[in-house]
Design brief:
Blueprint lengths: L2 H12 L30 E10 L8 E2 L2 E9 L1 E6 L4 E5 L3 E4 L5 E5 L5 E10 L6 E2 L22
Antiparallel strand pairs: 1-8, 2-9, 3-6, 3-8, 4-5, 4-7
Length: 153
């Protein structure tokens, strides 16, 4: 399939995982926001690109993906809760990557709406997300400290 290499190239040129923000590109140039080497473990992968608008205080519930998510906050403030890991608030212009199988939940901590450009590279035929029956701590819906324990295995 020709679309997958093109999609991966497009994705890699649009985004770059880095703890340090990349310097602003010169006028007329493009700068990677995040990069990720896609493991091709033999399964056919499907690339999805979508936009999600969150109302203030909205989340979508703890879930996982059968692949990688690479997202960019277009506007607003999104707290990304990672079960058993770091919870961080991302602001407009920042991006994040979520590895395969990671339990997570994005939450709009306001003020106002938040929009996220979401990119998935998932196993072909997999659902876009696998919802989990876990309760998110109330503190995670605020800008204060938040932690979510890793689910029992």
């Amino acid at each position: 399939m020709r679309i997958m290499p093109v999609a991966v190239l497009l994705l890699a040129s649009a985004v770059a995982v880095s703890a340090q923000p990349a310097p602003a590109p010169a006028a007329g140039a493009a700068a990677a926001k995040q990069t990720y080497d896609v493991p091709t473990g033999g399964k056919t992968q499907t690339f999805y690109m979508l936009s999600r608008v969150f109302k203030e205080g909205e989340d979508i519930g703890l879930h996982t993906h059968d692949g990688v998510e690479i997202s960019w906050v277009v506007r607003g403030n999104i707290r990304l809760v990672i079960a058993g890991g770091e919870s961080k608030i991302y602001h407009a212009g920042e991006s994040f990557m979520i590895p395969r199988g990671t339990v997570h939940d994005p939450i709009n901590v306001g003020p106002g709406e938040a929009e996220v450009a979401v990119n998935y590279i998932l196993d072909k035929g997999s659902p876009m997300r696998n919802p989990l029956n876990l309760v998110l701590p109330a503190a995670c819906k605020t800008t204060g400290p938040c932690s979510m324990p890793a689910p029992a295995k």
